[in-house]
Write a structure and sequence with these properties.
- The protein is α/β, with parallel strands linked by helices.
- It has one domain: Metallo-beta-lactamase, Chain A.
- The protein is built from twelve helices and 18 strands.
- It is globular and about 55 Å long.
- It starts with 11 loop residues before the first strand and ends with a strand.
Length: 363
């Protein structure tokens, strides 16, 4: 179990992964009191973004501690409460995929009141952009999102560095074509967001803190050509050298996000892997769990991939539920938390779990 109020030491790297079954947030301590938050989700018990709740328990002020808030892409399960995190982290740079820095996507943000655009993650993005505009008008003219793409250095300090590995340049043309198709012409039928577009433009992240390297896979998928997705990352001659010890597995462990050369070329043998499930699609599947467990030295998931039965209610309610919805399952469950801490120069990490988080077992 995690001592949730125990802060990391100044020379200690931390990667905390949160996920309740649908939703994901990564909190990283680079060292020297410098933190970054990658994506966001809401803890249904506290009704707060889990990162802010975690900082509160650690006794940290996000306005002082957080240096980067990274929104890897605009899928709902990665962006819930991100605007509240950005608002609290007043000193942090806000990082978004450079693919969103285009007039087509900004037009989409302007029509979020249209029913077909709701639930696509654009509401949180709109609030983040409005927050930055407010700060720009009241404080400095240089406040703007950091537009990330492959080979973008997002942060550099004595404590460590953060670099974006994606999206690739080749991804932009496809994204522009797809996002433009969301804007209906006169008399045309409105369409929902293209399902795979946010994953294609997701920001995969490379972190270095001294000798410690971590690869955060976001929801980036393999890609259908050598210049998109993970294929573009591995094929790039400009990506960071060295191998990562820690991996946040991409896209909930799905087979479509598994590029074997990431394991062979970018990771240490038998790395430490963590992931979150996505219960709406029952990810990861049993075969995914077996594959990840066989490739990693140790692997942990924040919650069970399959929906679970909800807690029992009053007898009359239970009777009604059994009659009208006998297969009812709970998609979003309690918040799971896997925390990894490594002291500079230490060979053995400290690994802690909380809630429904569990360790994958190699058969």
């Amino acid at each position: 179990m995690i001592n949730i109020r125990n802060r990391p030491a100044a020379d200690e790297f931390e990667l905390s992964l949160f996920g309740p079954g649908v939703g994901e947030c990564v909190v990283v301590h680079l060292g020297q009191g410098e933190w970054l938050v990658v994506d966001s989700c809401i803890d249904r018990e506290t009704r707060k973004p889990v990162a802010l709740d975690y900082f509160d328990k650690l006794g940290l002020n996000p306005a002082e501690a957080v240096r980067l808030v990274i929104v890897t892409h605009w899928h709902d399960d990665h962006i819930g409460g991100a605007s509240a995190v950005a608002k609290a982290a007043t000193r942090a740079d806000i990082v978004c995929s450079a693919a969103l820095n285009c007039k087509e996507f900004q037009t989409v943000l302007g029509v979020t009141a249209v029913p077909y655009m709701r639930g696509a993650g654009v509401d949180e993005m709109t609030q983040i952009f409005e927050l930055l505009l407010d700060r720009r008008s009241s404080n400095r003219l240089d406040i703007t999102p950091v537009w990330a793409k492959a080979h973008t250095r997002l942060y550099q300090t004595v404590a460590g560095s953060v670099e974006a590995l994606s999206p690739s340049d080749a991804t932009f043309s496809r994204f522009l074509q797809e996002i433009a198709s969301l804007l209906p012409g006169v008399g045309a039928t409105a369409r929902r967001a293209v399902k795979n577009t946010p994953n294609e433009t997701a920001i995969a992240i490379w972190i270095e803190a001294g000798e410690i390297r971590a690869l955060l896979g976001s929801d980036l998928e393999k890609g259908d050509t050598g210049v998109t997705g993970w294929q573009a990352v591995v094929n790039s001659t400009r990506r960071p050298q060295g191998r990562a010890r820690l991996l946040k597995v991409a896209h909930h462990g799905s087979d479509g996000a598994d590029e074997p050369r990431v394991w062979s070329d970018m990771l240490e043998p038998q790395p430490l892997a963590v992931l979150t499930p996505f219960r709406r699609s029952w990810l990861p599947r049993e075969t995914d769990l077996e594959r990840i467990a066989s490739q990693a030295g140790q692997a942990f998931c924040t919650a069970l991939p399959r929906p679970t039965r909800p807690a029992r209610r009053a007898p009359t309610v239970e009777k009604l539920v059994r009659r009208v919805a006998p297969d009812l399952r709970e998609v979003v469950g309690p918040m799971g938390h896997v925390r990894i801490r490594i002291k500079r120069g230490a060979s053995t990490p400290s690994i802690e779990r909380r809630g429904p988080a569990f360790q994958l077992r190699h058969p």
